[in-house]
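Q: My labmate handed me this sequence with no annotations at all. I'd like to see what the chain might look like in three dimensions before we decide whether it's worth expressing. Could you predict it?
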Amino acid sequence: MLYVLNTLIVPINFDETQEAQVRFKKISIEEAKEVIKGSQWDSAIGHNATAKVLSQLLGIEIPTQRKTIFLKKGDQAIHFFLKQRLPEGAILSEEELKKLDFWLVLSKVI
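A: Here is what I predict for the chain of 110 residues:
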């Protein structure tokens, strides 16, 4: 399964496994589009503005779904990672979010 996340954190369920290895790769918008195209994927994007910006970047509707997910061996995630830490409690608008630098990172639990 492929997940779309708005954090670089990789959620692993340690009730089911004692250890996990994760590989990370910084990817371009075009690479992210290729990864998501034709894949079975799920959104765990909890903020509406982030979902809208990602939808525009990837050319696919990314729903806002504030939910808990756990990656298992073989799962991948596309992470939208802001390159700066926001002040506590900050919720950015779509316009504010577009002004910030970010990375797209592909992770895989191996």
